[in-house]
Amino acid sequence: MSNESLTIAIDGPASSGKSTVAKRIAADLNLIYVDTGAMYRALTYKALKDHVNIKDEKALLELLENTIISFEKTEDGQRVFIDGKEVTEDIRQNNVTNTVSIVAAHARVRSELVKRQQKMAQNNGVVMDGRDIGTVVLPDSDLKIFLVASVKERAERRHKENKSKGIFSDLEQLKKDIAERDYKDSTRDTSPLKQADDAVRIDTTKLSIDEVVKTIENLISTKLK
User: Fold this and answer.
1) I need a surface site. Which of 123, 187, 193, 219 has the fewest CB within 10 A?
2) pLDDT per residue over 148-188, tens digit each?
3) Which neighbouring-strand residues pair with 203?
4) What percentage of the chain exceeds 90 in pLDDT?
5) In the chain, which residue ranges form alpha helices assigned H by DSSP?
6) What dihedral angle (degrees, nearest 10) is formed by the CA atoms of 156, 162, 167, 172?
7) Which residues on adjacent β-strands are paired with residue 77?
8) Which burial class, exposed, middle or buried, applies to 84 when counting CB atoms under 10 A from its CB (0-12, 13-18, 19+)?
9) CA atoms of 150 and 86, how far apart (whole Å)
10) Banded pLDDT at 2 (limits 50, 70, 90)
11) Contacts of 15 (CB under 8 A, 6+ apart)
């Protein structure tokens, strides 16, 4: 097995470190990084901006069919675009964060985005993170990781990140929001958040990003032998 064809699935709840870790590993191994969460956020952002009812699956699907979501790798990190317009920071605003679970729960919306995600992984080595990568999107991944962390730790991470970006943040409210997001993601009917049977579970609560990356890259090295 070579890096060029390696597929790595990283799943876990909100703020468990998936995206940060996935970006690092993709860069280290020269693989394509696919942030599936950003795709759901992008659709949510556009729906809110265009005043589309996020509880109306048919309306969302029509919006998605006329929406191009793309990524671009730059020296400053990966940028997210909707119909050619950059929305990297816009999709991280609180109004998107607090409503994306509603959009992600629609079965036909997920089905369409899963098709797009699988297409990105065709004939390419990828690191893909989300909530159903190992179970639904890339069930035959070479390596599946499931990252977890306490609600308190994840809320503090999100709080720190928000403050660094100048986004208003209330720590206690974040704890409630993350716990609620966990419940919604793990109990939805379509592609709920759950650990794949063959995934390696890593608790990141007391680990630094470097430690998590090293742990996963050691697992990858074993796979490549």
Assistant:
1) 123
2) 999 999 999 999 988 998 888 899 999 999 999 999 999 98
3) 148
4) 79
5) 18-29, 36-49, 57-65, 94-97, 100-104, 107-121, 151-164, 171-187, 209-224
6) -10
7) 74
8) exposed
9) 32
10) low
11) 149, 154, 155, 157, 158, 178
Residue written as token pair 């470097």: 210
Q: Which amino acid is located at 25 in the chain?
A: I
**Residue the block writes with tokens 């998936």:** 18
Topology classification of domain 3-220: Rossmann fold (3.40.50)
User: Tell me: the pLDDT tens digits for 13-33?
Assistant: 988 999 999 999 999 998 989
Question: Counting runs of H as helices and runs of E as strands, what totals does the chain give?
Answer: 9, 8
- Say if residues 214 and 21 touch (Cβ distance below 8 Å): no
pTM score, two decimals? 0.85
